[in-house]
Amino acid sequence: MKIGFIGLGIMGKPMSKNLIKAGYELVVCNRSQASVQELAALGATPAKNPAEVAEQCKVIITMLPNSPQVREVCLGANGVIETASEGTVVIDMSSIDPVESKAIGAELNKKGIELMDAPVSGGEPKAIDGTISVMVGGSKENFDKYYDLLMAMAGSVVYVGELGSGNVAKLANQVIVALNIAAVSEALTLAVKNGADPELVYKAIRGGLAGSTVLDAKAPMMMAHNFKPGFRIELHIKDLNNALNAAHAVSASLPLTSQVMEIMQALKADGNQKDDHSAIVKYYEKISDVSVEKK
Question: Which of 47, 152, 170, 212 could cross-link with 119 by S-S, CB 3.0 to 4.6 Å?
Fold first, then answer.
């Protein structure tokens, strides 16, 4: 099966490589030509723009930064909509506003093009080893049809519901992760300000109800002051902004998400937007005049 792949960034490039390893023929497009040439060396066919991809492929995967880029690739000049034939399926694996997913899908549908939203969780390491988690919205028929394709890049692929539901699930994931990181930051700050060893406190609580994947992943980074990004603060700001927009569109209130967004905005103002989101602890260290770093 010939697959179009648009967006060869931190996530898209390793995902597309996994498709090639699985035996799929790819037509690839990206603004940075270095990534295109890297994929071409592995057997992919380069395309100049999304329209050229759509001329050759009935299934197109997009992996882009945010809603505006997905709209441009699908509906803009030299976009998918200009050349895609009726029955083409676009699988958008970007993390975007679910309201926009539905709007873009409605425009594509006018030309007989179907859209699935299939955002991912797991970051670059899981994209490389093919174990990302994929949350899918769209028709159940398309989910079943392209399940194996998605599994070629993933460790799990779960159907959530109608178009937009995949991004709702991803945003829910991002809300929970952000609030957990903030909670871990508060807890370690509390420990240090009271003269306790943060590492021993971490070890004491990780086996109880407070234990979590976030705690185990981020507390050691905080105590090592290792903020090399697995997932950058600026990207989490993007996701929380989409979560708040989606919430406001249906009159839902997300007060804790709003608070963590303000913490991240403060970190961005201090120049920390490229740090891993575990750097939320820097905000707490600053306002409490303390460091959780283990010496």
Answer: 170
